[in-house]
Specification:
Number of strands: 37
Number of helices: 25
Distance between the termini: 52 Å
Low-confidence stretches: none
Strand content: 15-25%
Structural class: alpha+beta
Shape: globular
Largest sheet: 7 strands, mixed
Helix content: 25-40%
């Protein structure tokens, strides 16, 4: 009996697939297409087991749909721009391009070992000039269509690295890399007008019924639609030009509970007061925070009393103090609010700190009450509110808006938290923004015939800041409009731009324009998109915007404005952690290959020191609990890794990688091979027929049905459980060899999307025609799924003791005879008749002694 040798079989079939160009996709209008895409990777140079799970899921789907007759498109590329390459360049005295290209080459080798069915003929990296040149063309079209613009904006500025940081790159008020205190700084930045699509992006979420509900909710909250009132307070004691203060509120019903107004440190009024050193210092302190709403929410609420007052619109004698506050966002609403402490937790924290009035105006029962440190946030009846008393919240809101509009002080307004997308980055390793700054003509778009505007190769990273700013010649250029000396824009695009349209470029990656109309019309949309939940908001939201912008500018059909028909978020691969204490008791982390586990003890391989085993958590380099997939492939083969990562848990949940689990998967695949080998060595003979053959045929078609259902519904672990059952049924079957051979060939085709190399070996061994990858997927015969027999459990005095299988339509008297003839019943009765024999048809037999 031979053993399946993955080291020989896997390279063999990978070469055969490649030589036959099995996975190369061509547009064929006569066939129904299916576009499968996994979120393309950043070329870090290292593939991890999490990648294996993610890409195996996409690969299973692609192989399955291909076997079902679809014209499958399954491309792959590289999300290659970004800060890590620049940091590596500074650290290793190399060029970002060289570092990136080397990593891509290494990861392609790792990908190849997994036997993935990618169509590499469409491969590109986002740092290819051919790709980012077309991205520059899109930018120019967006600019012409009014979807791109330039304005001053408050940004996170790292004064050491001399660059803008995303909110996620600010940690405890400091730059994530330099550790410097971050400043909020006003810079002229380029923006995409995603806010123009706020309502459309929100309402269209309801139609994405093949997306996880969690992702749709996260996007809904990020867009943040709110309906409220925008109106103007009359100011007292404000500088000239600030006779009114415009605020926005979603709770106009609480206006009678207002005890202060507050403005952002970036509000024009706050800036106008900076001649006062105390105001300037306070504003500067506020600007050291990040610009995200989350960070402002977590920060201690602090304010500065400006001495300015505003008049209450409905109470002539009431004046509210105006504070500058660190929790107000300038780019949401108007950058100014009124505070009603009784019904907003942020406001009550602020009011208690500064001894401001707290007046409840919404009551659960219509009665007055005292507010402590917790705001009342539930629905109720208006109190302490003059003409609003007795109304519910919605009625009160409508009444306030109506009166404010009648007095021409403001209007009801819908707002969104979604802000325009700032794409400017002061970095070298990104897509250059294709505009020129001319002292005569201003900002001038580059001519398309001059694209791509390539990054210069001769740059240095020995100084902080953007190397493009100090390049001796690159930025010097003639104005495309007047021909005078001008300068290129040195900011590059946010790398989220690169990943917001790559799926469309894949459809026509060699096209001289961003997309080819015919290719985009045929291949778009992506039918199944696979990737992590961490991309639920920004990447997916930006891609949805980009698809709409590309449709508006003629690069995508209107049918592609929602680019991803179905989305699946895979769970993470986890592993327990191993640590030993250093001299100060801090953990020193160890990788799994440094550990020996024996007799319930875990020790260091090198020293024998006892190791603390931590919980199973997401694999990470910092905790060193990663598993090298190439080592696993070397030990067990790629098919074992593919099988195990899909078998142990539903694909949307986390899975724990264990050596024992991988070994069990390997043993099962060896068992399948032994079965196939055993069958192949028996002489071929005509089918025998009979009950055993019929039973195996039924088991085969049940497996086809169940595995198909699992594949269709992303329940891959259930499909694998069905394959385990089918393997056992086949191993136990006493059917003839011809029937077993046919069942085994079907087993190979059912396993092919998961374990393609083993399946090809079995298919070839048993004389299958061509390659298994090209064979159609088996189809279950519905007539063979009907069960003609049922299994009835036998309870004796209330405890299950046995079971019998009977025809579904067997008369009750015959069932009684079989039950009384059962060995367990005979033994229990010991020659006596039963007190009662109760048969519940189709369900259970109860014997009472």
């Amino acid at each position: 009996m031979s053993r399946y040798n993955a080291h020989v079989a896997e390279p063999k079939w990978q070469q055969k697939w490649q030589e036959a160009e099995v996975f190369k996709a061509l547009r064929d209008e006569s066939r129904e297409k299916y576009y499968v895409l996994e979120m393309f990777p950043y070329p870090s140079g290292v593939l991890h087991i999490g990648h294996v799970r993610n890409y195996t899921m996409g690969d299973l789907t692609a192989r399955y749909k291909r076997a079902k007759g679809f014209n499958v498109f399954h491309p792959m590329g590289w999300d290659a721009f970004g800060m890590p390459a620049e940091n590596a360049a500074m650290k290793n005295n190399t060029h970002p391009s060289a570092w990136t290209r080397q990593n891509i080459a290494e990861m392609k080798t790792q990908f190849a070992a997994l036997g993935l069915s990618h169509d590499w003929s469409h491969e590109f990296a986002t740092c290819d000039p051919e790709y980012y040149g077309q991205q520059q063309a899109l930018f120019l079209d967006f600019l012409e269509a009014g979807l791109a613009y330039r304005k001053n904006a408050s940004v996170n500025w790292d004064p050491v690295d001399m660059t803008v940081l995303a909110n996620e790159q600010v940690e405890n008020g400091r730059g994530w890399r330099s550790g410097a205190l971050v400043e909020r700084k006003e810079l002229t930045q380029w923006f995409f007008k995603i806010s123009d699509y706020s309502e459309e992006l929100l309402s269209a979420l309801d139609g994405l019924d093949k997306w996880p509900d969690k992702v749709r909710l996260m996007q809904k909250n990020w867009i943040g639609k709110s309906q409220g009132l925008q109106f103007k307070f009359e100011t007292i004691g404000a500088p000239k030009g600030f006779e009114q203060l415009e605020v926005y509120t979603t709770r106009p019903d609480t206006l009678f509970g207002a005890s202060f107004a507050a403005i952002s440190a970036d509000h024009p009024l706050a800036k106008a007061l900076e001649s006062d050193p105390a105001v300037a210092a306070f504003n500067a302190e506020c600007r050291q925070m990040g610009t995200s709403a989350e960070e402002m929410e977590k920060a201690d609420k602090i304010g500065f009393d400006t001495g300015i007052k505003v008049k209450h619109p409905f109470e002539d004698s009431k004046e509210l103090p105006v504070y500058i506050a660190n929790f107000i966002l300038m780019d949401y609403g108007t950058g100014a609010i009124f505070g009603c402490p009784a019904h907003d937790q942020r406001d009550i924290d602020f009011a208690r700190k500064y001894n401001l009035e707290v007046t409840p105006v919404v009551s659960p029962d219509g009665k007055n009450y005292e507010i402590g440190t917790e705001a009342f946030l539930d629905s109720g009846i208006l109190i302490n509110s003059d003409f609003l008393n007795g109304m519910d919240i919605d009625t009160a809101k409508a009444e306030v808006i109506n009166r404010i509009e009648k007095s021409s002080m403001g209007e009801g307004k819908t707002n969104y938290r979604l802000r325009d997308w700032g794409i400017s980055r002061q970095r070298y390793w990104g897509c250059p923004i294709p505009v020129v700054h001319c002292s005569t003509c201003g900002v001038v778009p580059e001519n398309k015939e001059n694209l791509p505007i390539k990054l210069p190769e001769d740059v240095t990273f020995d100084k902080p800041g953007n190397p493009l700013d100090r390049h001796p010649t690159w930025r010097e250029v003639d104005c495309p409009k007047c021909g005078a000396a001008a300068q290129r824009e040195t900011d590059t695009m946010d790398t989220f731009v690169d990943s917001s349209w790559y799926f469309a470029r894949f459809t026509s990656d060699k096209s001289a324009s961003p997309t080819s109309k015919a290719d985009a019309q045929y291949w778009m949309n992506v039918d199944q998109y696979v990737g992590g939940i961490e991309h639920a908001i920004l990447h997916l939201l930006y891609s949805r915007f980009f698809a709409r912008a590309m449709a508006k500018t003629g690069h995508l059909p209107e049918t592609a404005i929602e680019p991803f028909n179905a989305l699946f978020n895979q769970g993470m691969v986890c592993h327990e952690t191993y640590s030993t204490p250093d001299t100060k008791g801090r953990p020193i982390w160890h990788s799994p290959d440094e550990i020996i586990q024996k007799d319930s003890k875990t020790t260091l391989r090198s020293t024998g020191e006892t190791v603390t085993v931590g919980p199973s958590i997401k694999m990470s380099k910092s905790k060193r609990n990663t598993v090298d997939p190439l080592e696993q492939i070397e030990q067990y083969g790629a098919d074992t890794s593919r099988w195990f990562t899909l078998s142990d848990s539903p694909p949307e949940r986390d899975v724990e990688w264990t050596t024992s689990g991988a070994e069990a998967s390997w043993k099962h695949l060896q068992r399948v091979w032994r079965l196939a080998d055993e069958i192949s060595q028996c002489a071929e003979e005509p089918p025998k027929g009979g009950d055993e053959a019929q039973a195996l045929l039924k088991a085969t078609h049940h497996a086809i049905n169940d595995v198909t259902h699992g594949f269709e519904n992303f329940a891959f672990n259930k499909s694998i459980a069905n394959l385990y059952e089918f393997t056992s049924a086949l191993a136990k079957s006493k059917a003839g060899n011809a029937e077993k051979r046919e069942a085994m060939k079907i087993m190979a085709l059912l396993m092919q999307p998961i374990t393609p190399h083993l399946s090809e070996e079995i298919w070839e061994l048993l004389g299958g025609e061509g390659m298994a990858v090209n064979a159609p997927f088996p189809i279950a015969d519905p007539t063979l799924l009907v069960e003609n027999t049922i299994t009835l459990p036998i309870q004796i005095n209330g405890k299950r003791r046995s079971e019998i299988s009977v025809p579904k339509d067997m008369p009750k008297s015959e069932v009684e005879k079989l039950a009384l003839a059962d060995h367990a019943v005979i033994k229990a009765l010991d020659g006596n008749p039963p007190k009662k024999l109760i048969i519940v048809p189709g369900r259970i037999i109860n014997v009472v002694i």
